[in-house]
Amino acid sequence: MSTNSDSGTAAQRPGLGLFVIAVACVLLPVSLAGPSVALPEIGEYLHADLTSVQWVINGYDLTFAAFMLASGSLGDLVGRRRVFRIGMAVFAGSLLISAVAPNMLILDLARSVAGIGAAGVLTCGVASLAAMFENPAARAKAFGVFGTSVGAGLAFGPFVCGTLNTQFGWRAVFYVPALVGILLLLASSAIGESRNPRAGKIDWAGTTTFTLALFALILGLLEGPQLGWGSGLVLGCLIAAAVLLGLFGVVERRVAHPMFDLSLLVQRRYAALCLAVLALVFGFTPLLVYLPAYYSAVDGLSAAQAGLVLMMLTVPTLVLPLVTGYLAKWVSVRVLVLTTVVLTGAGVAWLTVIHPGAGALAVLGPYLVVGIGIGISFGVMDGAAVSAVDPARVGMAAGMFNTVRLGGEATGIAVVGAMLAGVTGAKIAGRTGGFDTRYHAQELANMVNQGDMATATSSVSPSARPAFQELLSGAYTDALHIALWSLAGLCALAALILLVLDRPDKAAETAGEGAPVGDPAEAPA
Asked: 257 and 73 in contact (C-beta within 8 Å)?
């Protein structure tokens, strides 16, 4: 996506246009993090298995990542406001379908389509801001509002959606954002139309192979604990993912206008930053998705209560990007990036203090450390990524970086979900002999991973339920600890690689230290 060489109609009401885009970009993280608190109720109401429930989040994140660059290119060609409006219509319509979905298949498909719409809203909303506010000072203020909106959606999404779920049921989690989206669609005429007359063609071959590869990888990861890692379907999916990723690489090297310019990864700093953002989203996003189910199953918290607890984790992400802008005047970008990875890894490792019945004070420290690390990254990572490449390739670098971020989120959610389900089942196996449950170990693991402890414990006699719940809670907690240590290790490894790949270079340091922390053409999703 590019914001250069724009042509089109300037916005008659740029203030209202900014408001529409800012509120739209509150909805996007809300639609990622918010529904996670409602997953236990969704699974129970629709009688769904664990894998189907996980696709509520994974389907949205997968298509969001896969269609970002294609949406940006389409906006450059046919008009950014037009694609923004189409994206918002698709997004709101899909949420309405999600709200009335009679079964998990319809819900999962609708969520996947919503991710496509979200890609158009984000990419063309950001590009429209850059076109509407050409004055540097006004543009900086506009993108400050935009960044705050994204942070607000992430910070308050779980609590707002948890409250909606508790008070009105899980369907309200989709109804309310859909209605807001419809209102934004009606007001979107305030956004000025713009396009890039020198835009290239859309890389449909790259988009298709990337989407299919990510889908096959996630499907294989989610089905692994259920069917066994040696099953034909799981092995077929993982092999297909590897083949499709290889094909994607071949396609991107041959097309005239690739969605991924793979030559950018040859640049050490840019490659290091892509690795860093992968580690960060692996360490953060799965917490938003799976901790609500843990609190529901182990501690019996409602969706609203779980969302309130998670605000200790998410609120720092709203505040720290603003602080980072000031820190960057005295602290090098390299040090800030390394600090984000180290803090996130340390916080995730510290979070292993979590256990059944742990109070808010027990997890306050680790939640704040993770939130601070991620908050700093929101203020520094995108600017560092685009500053690491030639100015003529900034648009491609920013688009690739956000695609890596969203693709990493989808993959991280799948990897951690597979670990939690598989390890919980392994911890339960062989230990249910003294209980009269009719469920197998993996079935019990799936139930507690969905937050449904009641169904699992109701399968044994009333006198045995306290001991059975203790067994299941302990297994689930052990699995969570193993996942947390693994994520902390990934962050530690990423930090070490950053030290090697992103070594100070006098020429680059001189050119890069004065670069802005955030790039107006892109912002964190």
From this structure: yes
